What we know:
By secondary structure, this protein is mostly beta strands. The protein has a domain at 10-139: Lipocalin (Beta Barrel), CATH 2.40.128. It contains no helices and 13 strands. The chain has a five-stranded antiparallel beta sheet, with no helix packed on it. The protein has a four-stranded antiparallel beta sheet with strand order 6-7-8-9, with no helix packed on it. It has a four-stranded antiparallel beta sheet with strand order 10-11-12-13, with no helix packed on it.
Amino acid sequence: MILPPGVPTSYPRDEDQAELPYDLLVPAGAEVTGTWFPDRGTVIVTWGVGDDPFLREQGLVVWRRTGSDPPWVATYAFRDPKKAGVLGIQVVTGDATGDGRADALVFENTGGSGACGTWRVVALSPRGDGPTYTNDLCDGSVEISADPVGIRLIESIYGPDDPHCCPSGVRTSTLEWNGTRWQVTSREERNL
C-alpha cells in the first residue's frame, strides 16, 4: 500500500493501542482529531492541518499491530487536500462486509445544506485494509446494517417542483458485500 506523503509507515514500540502516542501516527504538525478502536489490534486515527475550517487538510490512517518488528504499521490511509473543503471526518465501526470483523464507515463531511460529503466503507481485514465502497453524496446518508449485514443507503427523492428543503420522498437501498462488490439486495421508496 502506498501511503500519502508525510504519513508515517510504522511505529517502533510495542505499546497497547490505548497508550500509543497518536500524534506520532499522523503527519508531522497535524492535529489528531479522533481515534477509534475497531478491534484489539487496530487503531484508526483522523487528523487535520490548518486553522481555517474551510481550508483544512484532513486525513485518516489505519494502524495494525503486527506481532513482529515493527510492532505497528500503517496499512491504509488517505489525505484530503485543502481545496477539497472537507470540514471533518467521522468514523463508525461495525461489520459491514459480513466477515465477522469490524469495518469502518467513514464520512468526509463537506457540508452545505445537503449535508454533502464522501462516504467510504473501509474493509478492515488481515488480508489488507482498504476501501470497498465510495459514494459522493448530498441529501443522503449511509449506515451500517446489522440485519441483513451490509450497508443502507438513504437518499432524498426530489420531484421537479420540490424546494431543496422539502423532498417528495426517501429511497432506502440495502447493499450486501459478496466478496468482490456491493450488490443492491433491496430497495424501498416512500413518499413524505
